[in-house]
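Q: How would the C-alpha cells look for this protein?
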Amino acid sequence: MANTIWPTPMIKLIDQIVTHRKLVAASLIGLSLVILAFDYVYGPQIRFPILFIIPIWLALWYFGKKLALSLAIILPLIRFGFNLFREIDIALWESAINAVLRIITFVFIVYVTHYAIQAKDLEKRVQKLEGILPICSFCKRIRVGDNEWVRLEEYITTHTEAQLSHGLCPDCAREHYSKYLTKPNGH
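A: Here is the predicted structure in C-alpha cell form.
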C-alpha cells in the first residue's frame, strides 16, 4: 500500500530493504524493543516516548490500524511498568497519568494518520475516475499513451476495481440478431 504521506525515497528504501511481512514484523518488534531498552537504561530523566511513533507508524503502514493501535497502547504501558520497578522521584499516580496521556496521544496519531492515508488513497482513486478520456468514436478504444489505444473494458478493469460482464442490450440484439429473435406474435 503506497501512500503520499511518507516521502517517496523513504518508501522505496523501506520497500527494497524489507520485502517480506515476517521480516517486517521481526524488524518492528526489534525496533520497539530497542526503543524500550533505551528508555529503560536511561531511566525517567531522559525520555524516549516520541520514538514510539516510529514503530507505531510502521505497524500502521505494513499491517494496518489494529496492530498500530495495539502498539500505541502496549508501549506506554510497558514504559509505565518500568516505573513500577525502579526508584524514581515521581509519584505512581503521576506516572499513570503520563502513561494514559501517551496512550491517548498515540491512539490519536494512529487515527489521524490512518484517516490521512485513506484520504490520499481516495483522492488517487477519484483522480483516476475523473477527467476527460480520449475515446475513439467508432471502436470505443481509450487513448492511454501518446499513440497507444486500449479497449474500453481493459481500461476500466486496469484503472478501477470494477469487474465487467458482457451482455446484449435490446437495441443491439434487434440490430445485429433480428433474424434470430422471435417476434411478439410468435412468428
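Residues 8-129 form one domain.

The radius of gyration is 28 Å.

Upvote if useful.
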